[in-house]
Description:
The protein is an alpha/beta fold.
Amino acid sequence: MRHTSPSPGTDTDTTDAEYTHPRLAALYDVLDPDRSDLDAYVAMAEEFGARRVLDIGCGTGVLALKLAGRGIDVVGVDPAAASLDVARAKPGVERVRWIHGDASSVPPLGADLVTMTANVAQQITDPDAWRNTLRTARGALRPGGHLVFETRVPARRAWENWNPEASHRVTRLPGRGATGSTVETWVDVTAVDGPLVSFRWTYVFEADGQVLTSDSTLRFRERAEIEADLVAQGYVVDEIRDAPDRPGREFVFVARRPGSQGRDVSA
């Protein structure tokens, strides 16, 4: 765990604070209002005829609520209580079952579809935790059910554009009128160690001068590595798609728990 130098108004426990710190979790949707990237997941839920979905790493609940609004039975699980608090404050919250924890906190559901959107798969950096997540997701699926997740293509080296010059933004916060306060944000890469890329987001609040930081690490797995991991955990890899919103930059894995309701009947 990395820390910033303590100073008045500065957060000192920074690891993934964008999800766990209440002030930053409340900003998540404000700073990323265009979630058209989730349209592909909504379309796949329809494609696979999903009536029950488990959303691992559901965060502030955007996808879970979209699916629930279509009459789908949704379970959203996330280890960040602050993000779940944001989700639970939204309209339609009663349509989703929210679980505070990781994938291992979820009982067998007989789900038709398990999703991991955005950075969720890459944020599981420990190999044992990754294998356990895949295994737990398989246990939550009915035979023939699908696991779908995205991960960045390592060869595109996305982190080379994660710098203050490219990422600096000043965003006006809602609820304070036309002359309301703002938050200034930018990102810096702090380390590249093989497949692991660490970076730090900085947030400066105009209203009170508070400076918060959030440190994260992503694992950039190669396509063949992920395929092997899925097969080792008992999946059939049906397809690897391109991300519609980021063509050529992300893999979208479509894996299936084999069984009598799928296309093959292997155990």
